């Protein structure tokens, strides 16, 4: 009798992890009734790794967290969007201009998020959205630059991002961008820190598996800036990169560094075709 | 008055008589608990929304007492039956005496 009890228990223990496997679910993400493309045939940058589907990080999260993103009223990130909408119309700097002076409403930013980071011909540099916002502020408005990952910057990014919600990510990786893309790829596959982990160790070879109690996603960045419940605030792509590298017990690159700009371009290209869903909600 | 306080309410614009509708409310507020200290060791004074009410055509729908453990930007979601066309009135009461109001009309 005792033997049967033990073996019955063993069956339970073996089968339990199956029910809680950390893989992507098959739910459908729609935000305010607009359906998002949260799974798409792998774009070239991802397909060459042997992965056939690009999957948004949304699919790896719990139902409660997922639900918060489906209604923009429930999405806490929208508070930052509202705040940035006020800033949009606020005149700052020596030129007496606001964002609205040149760009009219924030709706004019539709499609912008989807193509950043983007090569800027005039400046001869690869620009992230944050860099472009600061370029506008310093060159056109005569205002002070925002801190790269400060609250004002992240909120403004969120406002610009939300205009592109539902549009496919489409960063260019050819021409002058190719050099940055290659550099980003190299960083992606470089093992950092005492734990000797590369981005690929977790997000390519082990997405869908657990890392301790957490689900590993593909590391797609189509949902950034992201409202993280644990921070009760918005985080940018570069904050996430820094956090990941820090977790490998390495000295990290700083937000806005050339390394992270290249990495952002490369990682974004692995999600070309996924909908821009930022600002998203994650655990 | 606390900074950046802004109430938001989501109510359907129309409903059928007797229908149960979902109301969502959110007010941006720091909800300082009064238990924290600043870098000099001084207690940061408590500043929270301590009461939230919702009335429909003068009749009370919900009346909530709020305590310091409630986090930033308090969010309430509740249901209400709508017998007739009318106005929902939402009121938040701040510790400092400020009162924030919002209202939404619904057509039956």
Automatic annotation (TrEMBL), chain A:
Gene Ontology molecular functions: electron transfer activity; heme binding; metal ion binding; oxidoreductase activity, acting on a sulfur group of donors, cytochrome as acceptor; protein heterodimerization activity; thiosulfate-cyanide sulfurtransferase activity
EC numbers for this chain: 2.8.5.2
Catalytic activities: L-cysteinyl-[SoxY protein] + thiosulfate + 2 Fe(III)-[cytochrome c] = S-sulfosulfanyl-L-cysteinyl-[SoxY protein] + 2 Fe(II)-[cytochrome c] + 2 H(+); S-sulfanyl-L-cysteinyl-[SoxY protein] + thiosulfate + 2 Fe(III)-[cytochrome c] = S-(2-sulfodisulfanyl)-L-cysteinyl-[SoxY protein] + 2 Fe(II)-[cytochrome c] + 2 H(+)
Catalytic residue positions: 244 (cysteine persulfide intermediate)
Binding site for heme c 1: 99, 102-103, 136
Cofactor(s) demanded: heme; heme c
Binding site for heme c 2: 199, 202-203, 244
Pfam family, one: SoxA-TsdA_cyt-c
Signal sequence, renumbered to the chain: 1-21
Keywords, ordered alphabetically: Electron transport, Heme, Iron, Metal-binding, Periplasm, Signal, Transferase, Transport
A single GO BP: sulfur oxidation
GO cellular component assignments: cytochrome complex; periplasmic space
UniProt entry tagged with the keyword Transit peptide: no
UniProt remark on cofactor binding: Binds 2 heme groups per subunit.
Binding site for substrate: 240
Cell location: Periplasm
Assembly and binders: Heterodimer of SoxA and SoxX.
NCBIfam families: thiosulf_SoxA
The family this protein is said to belong to: Belongs to the SoxA family.
The name this protein goes by in its record: SoxAX cytochrome complex subunit A
Species lineage: Bacteria, Pseudomonadati, Pseudomonadota, Alphaproteobacteria, Rhodobacterales
Automatic annotation (TrEMBL), chain B:
Signal peptide positions (record): none
Chain ranges of the Sulphur oxidation protein SoxZ domain: 10-103
InterPro entries given in the database record: Ig-like_fold (IPR013783), Ig_E-set (IPR014756), SoxZ (IPR030995), SoxZ_dom (IPR014880)
Cross-referenced NCBIfam families: SoxZ_true
Protein name: Sulfur-oxidizing protein SoxZ
Species of provenance: Roseivivax lentus
Organism taxonomic ancestry: Bacteria, Pseudomonadati, Pseudomonadota, Alphaproteobacteria, Rhodobacterales
């Amino acid at each position: 009798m005792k033997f049967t009890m033990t073996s019955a228990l063993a069956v339970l223990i073996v089968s339990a992890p199956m029910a809680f496997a950390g893989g992507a679910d098959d739910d459908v993400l729609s935000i305010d009734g607009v359906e998002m493309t949260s799974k798409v045939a792998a774009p070239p940058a991802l397909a060459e790794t042997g992965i056939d589907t690009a999957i948004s990080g949304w699919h790896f999260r719990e139902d409660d967290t997922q639900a918060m993103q489906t209604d923009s009223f429930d999405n806490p990130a929208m508070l930052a969007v509202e705040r940035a909408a006020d800033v949009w119309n606020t005149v700052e700097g020596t030129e007496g201009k606001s964002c609205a002076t040149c760009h009219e409403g924030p709706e004019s930013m539709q499609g912008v998020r989807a193509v950043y980071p983007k090569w800027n011909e005039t400046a001869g540099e690869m620009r992230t959205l944050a860099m472009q916002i600061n370029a506008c502020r310093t060159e056109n408005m005569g205002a002070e630059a925002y801190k790269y990952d400060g609250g004002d910057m992240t909120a403004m990014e969120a406002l610009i991002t939300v205009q592109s919600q539902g549009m496919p990510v489409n960063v260019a990786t050819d021409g002058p961008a190719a050099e940055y893309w290659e550099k980003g790829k190299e960083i992606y596959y470089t093992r950092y820190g005492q734990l000797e982990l590369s981005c690929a160790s977790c997000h390519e070879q082990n997405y869908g598996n657990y890392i301790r109690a957490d689900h590993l996603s593909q590391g797609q960045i189509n949902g950034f800036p992201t409202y993280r419940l644990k921070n009760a605030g918005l985080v940018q792509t570069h904050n996430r990169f820094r956090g990941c590298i820090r977790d490998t017990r390495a000295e990290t690159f700083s937000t806005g560094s050339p390394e992270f700009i290249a990495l952002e371009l490369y990682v974004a290209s692995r999600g070309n075709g996924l909908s821009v869903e930022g600002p998203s909600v994650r655990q | 008055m606390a900074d950046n306080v802004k109430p938001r309410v989501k109510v359907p614009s129309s409903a059928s008589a007797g229908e149960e509708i979902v109301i969502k409310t959110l007010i941006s507020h720091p909800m300082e608990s009064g238990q924290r200290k600043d870098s000099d060791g001084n207690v940061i004074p408590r500043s929270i929304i301590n009461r939230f009410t919702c009335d429909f055509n003068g009749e009370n729908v919900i009346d909530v007492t709020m305590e310091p453990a409630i986090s930033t930007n308090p969010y309430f979601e509740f249901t209400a039956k709508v017998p007739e066309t009318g106005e929902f009135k939402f009121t938040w009461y701040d510790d400092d005496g400020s009162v924030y109001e919002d209202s939404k009309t619904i057509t039956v």
